[in-house]
């Protein structure tokens, strides 16, 4: 059964030679690492519009186009800046790696915490947006969003990624291009209808703007902050440069250019159509669904666009699955996260990182009920913090290197740092009370956790260090005893096998029974004498019918009586059932006892399993 489950989950193991064939060409990498950014056109402009169209009839519709233009300009600046990151840091790791190398540990850890938050939100937001797309086309699914989201996370994204990059890339590449085909058809057909229809390209209602007073400025800036959700995922390419085919950095740079160019075109086209058709947000219906229905009606093309949008949004979460486990592995190798996050599984994927992002995203979806608007409130601030740190790090890098054209490159990154830094301030001010505070609290907490983990590993390394320079001699004349304690509930075949093993360890064997009452103690004593194994049985009365605590107290008392150089070994008899569900029919005293004893100092614990045949 275990082997069948393993094959379903991860398939056949891969070897290091096979890993060489897992490098991605540009056309495939574009679909995998850019699906997050490209699919954001399905919710980015709409989220900006939601803020502009206020609940009390305040209309600021005309500010939508300047906001999307500003987002597009910012996208170009950030893309050019991340091209520099890919060029200077071909080993991957994005903002964390360049910050650690150029400006120090603390900014690097802040970047790592920010990117961690962003990637988890990317997975949650993308899955929630995909579900919103399909619910718009099939209203009968309303109310089932959380269940759909969790099913996609655990049974599609997690399982496919655990099977390895080859399977995930083959599964995810074609739907992305199918989505792009649908968007091209939508934009070209919509623009043709706009040009050929009578009247203005943009109706007067879509150009209305209230005066830009302080209240309106706040609304516009908050709409801009929501629109910046279209830029998340830009850093994924720079985080995953090692996964590209050689030359890795050059291919990553070309992919970044293509991603930015396609996204700017789609943002412009969708925004134009939203303003031309004067789309107003409707509950349970996405703006993209409204546009597709305006242009194509409820035809096959409409459902094609909705289904491909749903799929690509689900796959956009895979950008996080490709980026975050790689980042976690790099941070773990530096000692700021558990070491096992740096290890690859049998399919050469970072399996533990994949599980971490799945569970984290699922928790967010459950907490916020799968509502996209609530998740968007947390979105973007983390990624723009990492953007800013990365660009500042690159300025230091180019100034230090001073190679050919370093001034121009430093200027590009400097402009990027200023622009993204301003966006961090805008998002903080406008979205703080709407949920951004949670991310701003989460990042310092993560930095604290990173530091504590690194401190633990440093302390452990210092204590485990073997001083080779010292000539350590063992005293062969020293007499050391090993007290072996064998706790039993009743004489059985399991106890017989455990005692055989205990005799190989020491002559000082203590067979111990914890009696819950005098009657049970007498029965066990009688069975022991009938068996007569040639050693005494020590019985401890437990007045409160406890089993584990009296044994722990006995071990502590023995530690105080024995010489400091002597050892204590606890041999735990335990039987193993043939079928896994049989374990549910028995208590787990042996497992609990092992867990409690193994943390005690100067006490060794050994479990002797006896395997049942039926």
UniProtKB/TrEMBL annotation:
<dbReference type="InterPro" id="IPR053153">
    <property type="entry name" value="APC_K+_Transporter"/>
</dbReference>
<feature type="transmembrane region" description="Helical">
    <location>
        <begin position="349"/>
        <end position="370"/>
    </location>
</feature>
<feature type="transmembrane region" description="Helical">
    <location>
        <begin position="376"/>
        <end position="398"/>
    </location>
</feature>
<dbReference type="GO" id="GO:0016020">
    <property type="term" value="C:membrane"/>
</dbReference>
<feature type="transmembrane region" description="Helical">
    <location>
        <begin position="215"/>
        <end position="237"/>
    </location>
</feature>
<keyword id="KW-0812">Transmembrane</keyword>
<feature type="transmembrane region" description="Helical">
    <location>
        <begin position="141"/>
        <end position="160"/>
    </location>
</feature>
<keyword id="KW-1133">Transmembrane helix</keyword>
<dbReference type="GO" id="GO:0022857">
    <property type="term" value="F:transmembrane transporter activity"/>
</dbReference>
<feature type="transmembrane region" description="Helical">
    <location>
        <begin position="435"/>
        <end position="453"/>
    </location>
</feature>
<dbReference type="Pfam" id="PF13520">
    <property type="entry name" value="AA_permease_2"/>
</dbReference>
<feature type="transmembrane region" description="Helical">
    <location>
        <begin position="172"/>
        <end position="195"/>
    </location>
</feature>
<feature type="transmembrane region" description="Helical">
    <location>
        <begin position="63"/>
        <end position="85"/>
    </location>
</feature>
<dbReference type="InterPro" id="IPR002293">
    <property type="entry name" value="AA/rel_permease1"/>
</dbReference>
<protein>
    <recommendedName>
        <fullName>Amino acid transporter</fullName>
    </recommendedName>
</protein>
<feature type="transmembrane region" description="Helical">
    <location>
        <begin position="410"/>
        <end position="429"/>
    </location>
</feature>
<feature type="transmembrane region" description="Helical">
    <location>
        <begin position="300"/>
        <end position="328"/>
    </location>
</feature>
<feature type="transmembrane region" description="Helical">
    <location>
        <begin position="106"/>
        <end position="135"/>
    </location>
</feature>
<feature type="transmembrane region" description="Helical">
    <location>
        <begin position="257"/>
        <end position="280"/>
    </location>
</feature>
<keyword id="KW-0472">Membrane</keyword>
């Amino acid at each position: 059964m275990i082997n069948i489950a393993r094959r379903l989950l991860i398939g056949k193991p891969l070897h290091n030679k096979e890993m060489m064939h897992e490098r991605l060409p540009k056309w495939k990498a574009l679909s995998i690492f850019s699906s997050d950014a490209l699919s954001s056109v399905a919710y980015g402009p709409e989220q900006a519009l939601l803020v502009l169209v206020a609940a009390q009839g305040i209309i600021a519709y005309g500010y939508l186009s300047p906001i999307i233009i500003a987002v597009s300009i910012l996208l170009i600046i950030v893309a050019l800046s991340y091209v520099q990151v890919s060029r200077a840091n071909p080993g991957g790791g994005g903002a964390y790696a360049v910050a650690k190398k150029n400006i120090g540990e603390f900014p690097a850890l802040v970047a790592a915490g920010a990117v961690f938050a962003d990637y988890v939100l990317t997975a949650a937001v993308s899955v929630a947006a995909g579900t919103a797309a399909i619910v718009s086309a099939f209203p009968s699914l309303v109310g089932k969003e959380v269940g759909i989201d969790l099913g996609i996370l655990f049974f599609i994204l997690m399982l496919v990624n655990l099977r390895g990059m080859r399977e995930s890339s083959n599964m995810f590449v074609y739907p992305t291009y199918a989505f792009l085909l649908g968007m091209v058809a939508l934009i070209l057909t919509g623009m043709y209808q706009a040009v050929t229809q009578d009247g203005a390209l943009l109706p007067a209602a879509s150009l209305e703007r209230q005066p830009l007073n302080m209240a309106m400025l706040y609304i516009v800036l908050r709409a801009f902050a929501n629109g910046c959700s279209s830029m998340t995922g830009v850093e994924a390419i720079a985080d995953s440069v090692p996964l590209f085919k050689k030359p890795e950095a050059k291919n990553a740079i070309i992919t970044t250019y293509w991603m930015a160019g396609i996204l700017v075109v789609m943002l412009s086209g969708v925004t134009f159509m939203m303003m031309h058709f004067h789309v107003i947000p409707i509950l349970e219906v996405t703006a993209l669904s409204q546009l597709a229905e305006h242009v194509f009606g409820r035809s096959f093309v409409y459902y094609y666009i909705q289904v491909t949008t749903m799929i690509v949004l689900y796959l956009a979460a895979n950008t996080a699955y490709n980026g975050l486990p790689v980042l976690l592995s790099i941070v773990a190798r530096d000692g700021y996260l558990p070491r096992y996050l740096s290890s690859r599984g049998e399919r050469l994927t970072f399996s533990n990182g994949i599980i971490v992002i799945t569970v984290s995203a699922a928790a967010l979806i459950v907490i916020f009920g799968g509502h996209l608007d609530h998740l968007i409130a947390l979105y973007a601030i983390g990624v723009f913090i990492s953007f800013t740190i990365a660009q500042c790090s690159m300025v230091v890098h180019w100034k230090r290197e001073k190679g050919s054209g370093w001034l121009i490159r430093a200027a590009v990154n400097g402009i990027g740092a200023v622009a993204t830094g301003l966006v961090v301030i805008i998002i903080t001010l406008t979205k703080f009370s709407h949920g951004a505070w949670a991310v701003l609290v989460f990042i310092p907490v993560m930095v604290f956790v990173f530091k504590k983990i690194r401190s633990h590993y440093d302390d452990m390394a210092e204590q485990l260090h073997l001083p080779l320079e010292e000539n350590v001699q063992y005293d062969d004349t020293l007499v050391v005893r090993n007290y072996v304690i064998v706790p039993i509930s009743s004489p059985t075949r399991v106890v017989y096998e455990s005692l055989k093993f205990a005799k190989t360890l020491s002559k000082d064997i203590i067979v111990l029974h914890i009696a819950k009452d005098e009657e049970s103690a007498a029965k066990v004593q009688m069975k022991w004498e009938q068996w007569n194994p040639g050693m005494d049985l020590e019985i401890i009365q437990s007045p409160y019918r406890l089993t584990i605590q009296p044994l722990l107290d006995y071990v502590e008392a023995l530690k105080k009586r024995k010489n400091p150089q002597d050892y204590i070994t606890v041999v735990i008899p335990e039987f193993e059932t043939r079928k896994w569900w049989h374990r549910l029919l028995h208590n787990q005293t042996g497992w609990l006892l092992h867990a409690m004893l193994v943390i005690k100092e100067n006490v060794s614990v050994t479990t002797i399993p006896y395997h049942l045949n039926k």
